[in-house]
Specification:
two-stranded antiparallel ribbon, elongated, 10-stranded mixed β-sheet, 233 residues, Pseudouridine synthase, alpha+beta, 6 helices
Length: 233
């Protein structure tokens, strides 16, 4: 059994939770003792949206899927910062200044382009063999290196202070939490990521994905596993 499975990940599930659920269903339905299941790009538990699962030999192509561009819908909260860059951290008030529509539009334009982005310290990046978030939670200093990323576009879908709703398309490796921080810094108000939904990976759309409930209810998961070209862009 080889191919990909598009999943619409629910909130409060880890990407590994989805992988484990799928692996268990495949095991029960096919009799395979150790079905190979991986994913092509993790989503934080707070985030929802498209997760591409790799089945069987497709696990060997993980890097090529990981390098695909991604699209997101995001909600930012202005006026405050978070120790983790999202709702899970300690929130600190920065400013009560309410930026104008034109200032917000300019701040979003400022983050479009190719530049060196600093990953959040609460990220899955490895430092000396350990995840950065593990070191941060242990109270240890985390030295991360910036990575070149590209933000192709940022479109404002709604702005009603303090909430800023955007759609964005970014290169692989771009952290939306860092993008929120950058927008907040540009506005001098602070900002953190309040909600995130991934809508696209390469040409794969979340509208074509199945839910975790679908996985549990299907009597033949192979109906949802598809083949895909390796060089998808």
């Amino acid at each position: 059994m080889n191919g990909i499975l598009l999943i619409d990940k629910p909130k409060n599930w880890t990407s590994f939770d989805v992988v484990a659920k799928t692996r268990g269903v495949i095991r029960r339905q096919t009799g395979l003792k150790k079905p190979k299941v991986g994913h092509a790009g993790t989503l934080d538990p707070m985030a929802t949206g498209l997760l591409v699962l790799l089945i069987g030999t497709y696990c060997k192509q993980a890097q090529q899927f990981l390098e695909l561009d991604k699209a997101y819908q995001a909600t930012l909260m202005l006026g405050a910062t978070s120790t983790t860059g999202d709702t899970e951290g300690a929130i600190s008030r920065v400013s009560d200044n309410q930026p104008s529509n034109s200032n917000v539009e300019q701040a979003c334009k400022n983050v479009v382009g190719t530049y060196e982005q600093m990953p959040p310290i609460y990220s899955a990046k490895k430092v000396d063999g350990k995840r950065a978030y593990q070191l941060a939670r242990e109270g240890k200093s985390v030295a991360l290196e910036p990575k070149q990323v590209t933000v192709y576009d940022v479109t404002i879908t709604r702005y009603m202070y303090p909430e800023l709703h955007i759609m964005t398309t970014v290169s692989s490796g771009t952290y939306l939490r860092s993008l929120a921080v950058d927008i907040g810094n540009s506005l001098k108000t602070g900002a953190y990521l309040a909600d995130l939904r991934r809508t696209r990976i390469g040409n794969f759309q979340v509208t074509d994905a199945i839910t975790v409930d679908d996985i549990a209810l299907t009597d033949d998961i192979t109906k949802h596993i598809r083949q895909a070209a390796i060089d998808i862009t």
